Amino acid sequence: MRQSSLVVVANRLPLDDNAAPDGACEWRRSPGGLASALHAILEQTPATWVGWAGGVGPAPQLPDIGGLRLRPVSLSAAELRGYYEGFANSTLWPLYHDAVQQPVFDRGWWETYRSVNRRFAEAAAEVAEHGAAVWVQDYHLQLVPQMLRDLRPDLLIGFFMHVPFPPPELYMQLPRRIELLRGMLGADLVGFQRPQAAHNVAQLAQKLLGAHATDDMIIVDGRTVHTGAFPVSIDVAEMRALSSRPDVLRQAKQLRHDLGRPKRVLLSVDRLDYTKGIEHRLTAYSELLRDGHVKVRDTVMVQVAVPSREQVDSYQALRDRIESEVGRINGEFGRVGEPAIHYLNQPFARSQLAALYQTADVMVVTPLRDGMNLVAKEFVAAREDGGGALVLSEFAGAAAELEQAFLVNPHDVDGLKETLLHAMSAEPADLTARMTAMREHLVGHDILAWARAYLTALDHTGRLAERLPDTAEKAPAASVPWHR
Ligand code: ADP
Ligand code: F6P
């Protein structure tokens, strides 16, 4: 087994099984913030990525992607249910997102979550060379840092939480709250999207473990764990390069033509997830149509909602509700050949997303709670023309950085309607000033800056960060040209 000095451990590998047009299977870049973010920097970095390749049964043989080795971890059907669909996505995910959906506490899932975490820890221990840095990602693998420390005390261990970390009053509901906290604090550095999350962890460490804790350091079992905020970002260069490609510009023009050349296009791009606020958004849009503030003749809404976690009951129920509401709105307000909402429940290539972003006059990103929200940043990076308005939820991590967006509380449907109207009628000079400021921010805060900041805080020397490429991925891979 070849070993690496840098190992990333994440639930998912950056590839998804996909049926190619000729019926063969091919691997495609998986949608989702974590895969998008890490893929961009790791493709050119000598490292190993330990993760699940999707599907059940024995782990497939996977090709390297550039300098990056992939080490798949297998899951059985029962493990997929208990670990991924169950404890990770029906217990932790809703609880960590302000319980916008009721978390399910099923005692049967815990053992599976623990044993799958152990498998990831063992896989990481196997591929890490002596003294290597291992960077564990997200809530699926919260027990891995401590398990890895027990297996390999020689390693430097980092943990990054991509989702929000809740306030103590919510976290305290978790039946296995102490084990989960201890598991995460097995790392040398625990990173979050926002400083508030580090504060929440410090309070919990004091309360549950009796630890000495500040907002940037916790002492557990005589060991110092550093904590801090490292807001994740996107491959700005990739999105900018895509957005200036002549074929993408042509596609954007064509899209506008296909949409019936409306005065305004409103766009939303989400995983089909209850945290994304899709239902609140549809209510607001439907009321704007009903009140006559928006006319189907001159405004269209495009809602891209890529399928996600389709086996989980709450996601199936959400999809049913959304599709029925889209049907109702189109039935009531649409005209022949002019639907009020174009609903697309499909994955898109990066170039298609770039074309969509260029087509939007108003990008509507209104999650009820989101660790970061990379779609908002992708939209800003794609607007080489300096145009377009971003309506952004105050409850997305991105709102702390993209302050010039039209910020909104998505729970307040009246406020959401007002903000949408404000963004739709804003003066071009106002929009350009806002967009210019947000783009300037992003240039200095791209995915490489994030990885450098995190890795430098992890090893304190900058040597890990030196392994990263000078620029992130230049030629985006819409699909990995490799057939099984
Ligand atoms: P999350 O991490 O919850 O999925 P983010 O907004 O942070 O949310 O990241 C979503 C990522 O998935 C973005 O990089 C976005 O481009 C990608 N994505 C969203 N919708 C699609 C789609 N229909 N097809 C392909 N990629 C998508
Ligand atoms: O950011 C949260 C997250 O769970 C990421 O780990 C992942 O990129 C994204 O949401 C998509 O989720 P899933 O891997 O369950 O499809």
How much is the average pLDDT?
93
| Oligomeric state, counting identical vs distinct chains | single chain
Ligands (ions, cofactors included): adenosine-5'-diphosphate, 6-O-phosphono-beta-D-fructofuranose
Number of helices: 17
Terminal CA distance reads: 22 Å
Number of strands: 18
| Largest sheet features | 9 strands, mixed
Strand content: 15-25%
Helix content: 40-55%
Shape annotation: globular
Strand order of the largest sheet: 5-4-1-6-7-8-11-10-9
What is Rg?
Answer: 22 Å
The unreliable regions are: 474-484
Give the helix/strand class.
alpha/beta
Question: Can you walk me through this structure?
Answer:
This protein is an alpha/beta fold. The protein is 43% helix and 21% strand. The chain has 17 helices and 18 strands. It has helices spanning 33-42, 77-96, 107-127, 144-151, 168-171, 177-184, 195-209, 236-243, 246-258, 278-290, 313-333, 350-359, 374-382, 413-424, 428-444, 447-459, 463-466, and strands spanning 4-12, 15-19, 25-29, 47-52, 68-72, 128-137, 156-160, 189-192, 212-214, 217-220, 223-229, 264-271, 299-306, 341-344, 362-365, 389-393, 406-408, 479-483. The structure holds adenosine-5'-diphosphate and 6-O-phosphono-beta-D-fructofuranose. Residues 31-33, 36, 269, 271, 304, 306, 347-348, 353, 372-375, 378 line the site of adenosine-5'-diphosphate.
